[in-house]
Amino acid sequence: MTDKRRIFAVVLLAGLLRFPGLGSTPPGVYVDEALQGYNAYSLRLTGRDHYGQAWPVVTKLFGSYSSSLYTYFSVVPVGLMGLNPVSARISSAVSGILLVLLVSAALSPLTGLIIAVSPVFVYFSRGAFEANLGLLLLVAGIFTSQKAVRRQAFLPWGFALLSLSAYAYHAERFLSLVFLGWFSWTARRAGLATRSIIISLALALIIQTPLLWLSVHPAVNTRLHELVIPGSPSQKVVAVVKSFGVYFSPDNLFSRPDPDIQRSFPDLGVFYWWMVIPFLAGIWHLFRSQPLSPKSRLMLILLFLSVIPGSLTRDYFASLRVLPAFFSVAWIISQGLSWLKVRPVWLGMFVILSLLELYSNMVLLQHERSSVWNYEYRELAGFIKRHPDLPVVIDSSRAKPVYILLAFYNRFPPLLFQSQYPSSWLKNYYSHPEFDPDIEVLNIHIRPISWAGDIYRDQLLIGDQLAISSAQAEEHFLELVAEFRDINGHPALTAYRTHPQSKCRATQSTPSSYCRDNIR
Q1: Would the pTM of this model clear 0.85, i.e. be above it?
Q2: Which residue spans adopt a coiled-coil conformation according to this UniProt entry (predicted)?
């Protein structure tokens, strides 16, 4: 089989693992996905995000700020397909497939195959994860800049891609600057014209200027401050060193899922268990191959640099933050397979076994983690849409930012939110990381339920089983009108209608002020 046919087969496999069921696996929509999609919807209709900021450099998130490039890449899909889970996720899926194509052509079809089937790359390609777009742009920038050593005209394009990746995800802000410096040095050593290097750096600086300017705003870096490792300087150094090693643990790489259950398949690690042997073989092969080739040196530099953003945070193992490092690990695995000279028939058997594991975990993902992905909120949104005249209180004591899920599914007009933020607030858009989960829009009130007052108004109360127990419903004469279940049919949310008159008649001996004022 020729390389072109191998590449086609690998890319086709990558597409088959990323596109089918994109809107239903993962089930539901996570709040970050809903925000990305709804902001794309808002930008398409109004040229502003749902807060009213025109074409923001970074997007206000729930208590912090997030990279906005993925949102801009989603504007066209949302415009073509409407606002739905597929249009919100398709930019990530396409990024994953293009990464496989790029790697297969630039490195080898075998490396492309490892990336095509590995759980970490499949998973992050099936959700609206901006880090997946950042990885594609970073790798494209690295390969293009490396090619400029032989063809000078590629240098500006490589530097532009590296700078653009900084707008996609936090880790790429650091990595892009490091590799801009690295490739400027290697270009100088390779004898490229000083004028070409200066022009390329100037272009990179122009692209990154808005982001660099915002980096001095403390509010924009709120999320980084929240994640920083606590303790004295010496304690931080020890913690960083330990955390750095965690990302090279075979247990974490080949067995244990990500501790954040929203960032991995239920029973799969970053890579499959059988890949540990070619990974170790690849390391041994690189150790014996001295001196290292420029390509090998570059991949190892990427590996170790990419772990730094993850090791500086307090999370034990955050796979999303070190995604470029796993790209290098995939390359090492492919090097090990080549060095071991694994026969195609054996490799095919391992790939088939991997696909079976992957399929079973996609099924498990739907059934074990539907509530993690807010599966029940789609039905809730439809229910609220059918009751536009009745006030609705949705308990927010434990809930995520529910409003963005309702806005996403019901396609609320962005002006409903934009009108709540005056121009004086927007002038300091990048200084407002705070987030108030209590929101009122249309007939919907998202806040904790007030048992002292809400039961005396004719309205709907919605919450989970901890928010409204069956005993409370009986005590306050609440009528169960709807249940919103997870994918397995288990109740996740319940909707009750209040009956103020019945409650007041039951408390005639000690009537509340609500009964005296409102019930005749």
Answers
A1: yes
A2: none
